[in-house]
Design a protein that fits this description.
Strand content of chain A: 15-25%
Low-confidence stretches of chain B: none
Largest interface: A-B, 72 and 59 residues
Strand content of chain B: 15-25%
Order of helices and strands of chain B: HEEHEHHEHEHEHEHEH
Shape of chain B: globular
Low-confidence stretches of chain A: none
Helix content of chain A: 25-40%
Largest sheet of chain A: 7 strands, mixed
Number of strands of chain A: 25
Helix content of chain B: 25-40%
Strand order of the largest sheet of chain A: 9-8-10-11-13-12-19
Strand order of the largest sheet of chain B: 2-1-3-4-6-5-8-7
Oligomer: heterodimer
Number of strands of chain B: 8
Distance between the termini of chain A: 52 Å
């Protein structure tokens, strides 16, 4: 497959997301497929932000493992990422300010030091001095040439981006883009070959935007939220479009209020939704049970991030399965569904609204930071505008001659008729206490064991019936594979790619993605897994939560687990490496690698010292008084490369044992 | 102005009789809510009574109307969602001092800031009744309860002062021993456009042996008997601190302010539940185009 991956690295506030947008939109309009991932931190300015934009002739399903072109916006970025550039790739930076030591890049990598003041001289002459952030546009111009993309399409993207700012700003930006493009054309050679531009324009969007759009299309009329990464962009989309799509959007005082408001709206008859991250959902759990016993339709999106507690607020994880599964006390039916990619998030959200109404229960959508926040191109056809909205069993009128309206009538299906309050002769109470068919409490004065039993069974019948409506999971790939990989949620796309890479290495693998966590297709999953030769779960968590859940439902244990829990998403090469390791019977070596030792060195420098130093040579060895093997990390001056200090890092524990400055205090 | 057709109070008789302790102040509050709805001509189908948890919060079960008997402290949040979903319903929130001023205080404050058009009746007995007599946020200093055997050491919360300073636009105090006045106060709250708080002395005859009917009867007086002007915010705030030998009953504060609903243009098209669902094709296509 023809593809190119561009990385843009810098500090928060360097404007790399805007540069990434220009590139991604250009490629999207050319008809190429784009998948971007932004690795960022909980900081408004500074820090290290790392955006990867993968562009393919065919559909790309993850940000992949490669790096062909690096745009470095500061010195730190050169040092951190230059080693990752593939042979024959390129690194681009502002040569007026930054330097790249050639020893830091692989053989054949072009070092593109752009003499920014010289390259932009003509533009400055015409428009006056440019802001530092505009230099990014020059570098994106160079990327266009290196990636063999169409210059005029990029120029038209900039024209659209700046059209509200007028002709002059457009010309300035297009001029900078052109300057970068021309400079690269004269001085460097292209990294990518010829593309076939289909020029089919596809939406370039994120999981959160798709969830919000789907909710509006499915008839959501009330949305409540409290800001929390990585769910906030649903709130932003909703707030931006509230008037246009006719949704009341309420930012509440806390997550307790958020879900209670959404349930109140649901009880009053509006399709309602709320969203949060794991920490917010922890606050919401009591109310999930309220929706359960009140049999109230409500949709709640839980976007997972690194935990526990505040954990890693801007990093991804799939570690809330048990929290969502176990949300609220007692037993009650609910839907728990995990969409597998951006496109799937559309249909899943629409379905969640329908299931919530049809079965009158809370529908919980489990996403994660990766799925919710990364943008990618999605085929337009995925977004079906023609949604038939079915509110389920809603009684429109009630004649008292038929007796009292029984809101919680004991039915065979488990679903009782519902009314929208305001319908004559149908007054009833929705209560958190157990109740009889007429919604009179059986908790206080009139306890009634048989009614409790029948009410539990009535609600319970929804589970079996709901299961019949939901498609069973299917094995993807060859039935006779050597290994079956088990996933849930956004890991689907990564594993799909990993399977192709494994095939190239002669390992035949297939894939079982579990979309419906509850209710669970135990029979079908048991059938599939009992036929598998080897079974390996792939999850972005520490304890293999899905594998444990599947074992509890089917009695089938995995033969191995691939886990990632460092905050970054699963990547195809990582899956391949660990699947091969497990198949060969090797233990997972958890030692700190040389690359990790370098990262730990950087962390120590950033948190304890001014950023004058960087890790240099790293050697493995032992150290007196330390019971484990260690990495000896030399710390060198960023510009001169002279050794200034050294530190010792434990290979097994990752402990920072010592830091020793080699420069006399007076010389510092 | 639309003519109000008064309804018979019996119309609001609930499916079961209250199971409160004999003599409980909440009986008077229930009756007053029924009288207030009837006086305002709100039919049971257009009345939604929302509560949390506690003795008082059982009220929706004892009245013929729609009810939501929700979670401890969450009544105001639930009521907010229900009200915004269907602004045609009259929403009356009924709860206790523990539910509303303790666990639910955050929602209470923010709902007032929004000046939502709902009515909140708090049955304030200065004790936790359903959990058999522990201290509540309005328990007076020194009061010995099961959880404060040495006497309460925390300053009691002043719900009226809090409401006036947080943006409520109808702030009143009633007493379940003064049922006719209480019904009028609640009726005024329902008729008022904006957030109405009616804090009601509703004695707990079982667990609060201090703040009893006789205790209140000796002290309360009616503001309407003194031609009280409730429109001066600062004077009303001063009045809200009156406690001890003389305790005022009536509307302490009233203001004509825009409601939250006034600021939401979507409501101009009518109640949300009555609006069409989903997106029309043109809007849908525009939303897709934005992503390209």
């Amino acid at each position: 497959m023809h593809e190119v991956t561009v990385g843009i690295a810098g500090a928060a506030g360097d404007g790399l997301d805007k540069s990434g947008d220009t590139l991604a939109k250009t490629c999207g309009r050319l008809g190429l497929f784009v998948y971007a991932y932004n690795s960022y931190q909980s900081i408004i300015r500074g820090g290290h932000i790392w955006l990867k934009v993968r562009i393919g002739q065919d559909k790309v399903r993850s940000h992949g493992d490669k790096l062909n072109i690096l745009v470095a916006l500061n010195q730190d970025s050169i040092e951190r990422h230059s080693r990752e550039i593939d042979n024959d790739g390129a690194i681009i930076f502002n040569g007026d300010r930054l330097k790249c030591d050639p020893s830091m890049v692989k053989e054949g990598v072009q070092i593109l030091s752009i003499p920014m003041s010289q390259v932009t001289a003509d533009v400055v002459k015409e428009f006056g001095p440019i802001q530092p952030i505009m230099q990014n546009t020059v570098m994106i111009g160079a990327v266009l040439y290196l990636g063999n993309f169409d210059f005029s399409e990029a120029a038209s993207v900039l024209t659209d981006t700046f059209k509200h700012k007028g002709e002059k700003i457009i010309n300035l930006n297009v001029g900078l883009l052109k300057a970068g493009y021309e400079y690269a054309k004269t001085h460097f050679k292209a990294v990518a070959g010829e593309w076939k531009f289909s020029r089919i324009k596809r939406p370039f969007t994120t999981g959160n935007e798709v969830i919000a759009l789907a909710a509006a299309a499915a008839g959501c009329k009330f949305y409540s939220a409290y800001p929390m990464t990585p769910a906030s962009t649903i709130l932003h989309w909703m707030a931006d479009h509230a008037q246009k799509v006719g949704i009341v959007v309420k930012q509440a005082e806390d997550e307790l209020s958020v879900i209670n408001m959404a349930i109140g709206a649901g009880l009053a008859g509006a399709r309602s939704m709320c969203a949060t991250a794991g920490g917010g959902f922890a606050l919401m759990t009591e109310a999930v049970g309220m929706a359960g016993i009140m049999e109230c339709p409500v949709v709640c999106v839980e976007v997972q991030r690194g935990g526990p507690s505040t954990g890693l607020p801007t990093k991804t994880e799939q570690a809330d399965l048990f929290q969502v599964y176990g949300a609220s006390q007692g037993e009650f039916p609910r839907l728990i569904v995990a969409p597998r990619d951006t496109a799937d998030a559309y249909g899943t959200t629409v379905e969640a609204f329908h299931i919530a109404d049809k079965y009158q229960l809370p529908a919980l959508i489990m996403s994660d930071l990766l799925l919710s926040e990364h943008p990618e191109t999605v085929d337009k056809e995925v977004f079906d505008s023609n949604i038939k909205i079915d509110r389920g069993q809603v009684v429109k009128e009630w004649n008292q001659d038929n007796g009292k309206f029984k809101r919680f009538a004991l039915t065979e299906s488990g679903v009782s008729p519902r009314v929208i309050p305001g319908t004559a002769n149908t007054c009833f109470v929705s209560a958190t206490d157990e109740h009889d068919e007429e919604s009179i409490l059986i908790s206080d004065m009139f306890t009634a064991a048989p009614i409790r039993r029948k009410m539990m069974e009535k609600r319970g019948r929804k589970i079996e019936n709901m299961l019949k409506d939901l498609p069973a999971p299917k094995l993807e790939g060859p039935a006779d594979a050597d290994v079956t990989l088990l996933t849930w949620g956004s890991t689907w796309g990564v594993v799909k790619e990993a399977i192709e890479l494994l095939a190239a290495k002669g390992v035949k693998a297939n894939h079982l993605n579990i979309k419906y966590i509850f209710p669970f297709h135990a029979k079908e999953v048991t059938e599939i897994l009992s036929k598998a030769k080897k079974k390996i779960s792939v999850e972005v968590n520490f304890t293999s939560q899905l594998a444990r859940y599947v074992r509890s439902e089917t009695g089938i244990a995995m033969d191995g687990h691939v886990n990632r829990y460092d905050g970054e998403p699963m990547e195809p090469a990582y899956v391949v490496e660990h699947v091969q390791r497990i198949l060969s019977g090797k233990e997972w070596n958890l030692d700190v690698t040389e690359e990790e030792a370098r990262e730990i060195g950087y962390h120590y420098l950033r948190t304890h010292y001014a950023e004058k130093l960087r890790p240099g040579k790293i050697t493995r060895g032992t150290s007196k008084g330390i019971s484990e093997d260690v990495w000896n990390v030399e710390l060198v001056d960023r510009t001169s490369g002279e050794k200034q200090a050294e530190m010792v890092i434990g290979i097994s524990t990752g402990a920072t044992y010592s830091y020793k400055s080699l420069v006399p205090a007076a010389a510092k | 102005m639309a003519t109000v057709v008064e309804l018979p109070v019996d119309l609001f008789k609930g499916p079961v009789d209250p199971d409160w302790c004999p003599g409980c102040g909440d009986f008077g509050v229930l009756k007053s809510v029924q009288m207030a709805a009837a006086a305002n001509g709100v039919t049971p189908e257009n009345l939604l009574v929302v509560s949390g948890i506690g003795c008082s919060s059982n009220l929706p079960g004892f009245i013929h109307a729609y009810g939501i008997h929700s979670l401890h402290g969450r009544s105001v949040a639930v009521a907010t969602g229900a009200h915004l979903a269907n602004t045609d319903l009259k929403v009356v929130i009924t709860g206790g001092d523990g539910d509303g001023y303790g666990i639910g205080i955050g929602h209470f404050i923010h709902a007032m800031r929004r000046n939502l058009d709902v009515t909140y009746v708090v049955m304030d007995n200065q004790i936790y009744g359903l959990t058999t007599g522990q201290t509540s946020p309005t328990t007076t200093l020194g009061h010995r309860t099961k959880s404060t055997p040495g006497g309460n050491v925390e300053i009691p919360l002043n719900p009226l002062a809090l409401a006036i300073t947080c943006g409520a636009t109808y702030v009143a105090r009633g007493f379940s021993g003064e049922q006719k006045q209480l019904a009028d106060l609640i009726a005024g709250g329902i008729a008022h456009k904006g957030f109405a708080l009616i804090d009601v002395f509703s004695p707990c005859v079982t667990y609060n042996k201090v703040n009893t009917y006789p205790w209140f009867k000796e002290r309360v007086y009616k503001l309407e008997d003194q031609n009280w002007d409730p429109t001066d915010e600062k004077k009303s705030l001063d009045k809200s601190f009156e406690w001890g030998d003389k305790i005022p009953l009536g509307v302490l504060y009233k203001a004509d302010q825009p409601t939250y609903e006034d600021s939401e243009p979507i409501f101009k098209k009518g109640a949300l539940v009555k609006q069409p669902l989903g997106l029309d094709k043109q809007i849908f296509n525009e939303l897709i185009e934005e992503m390209i």
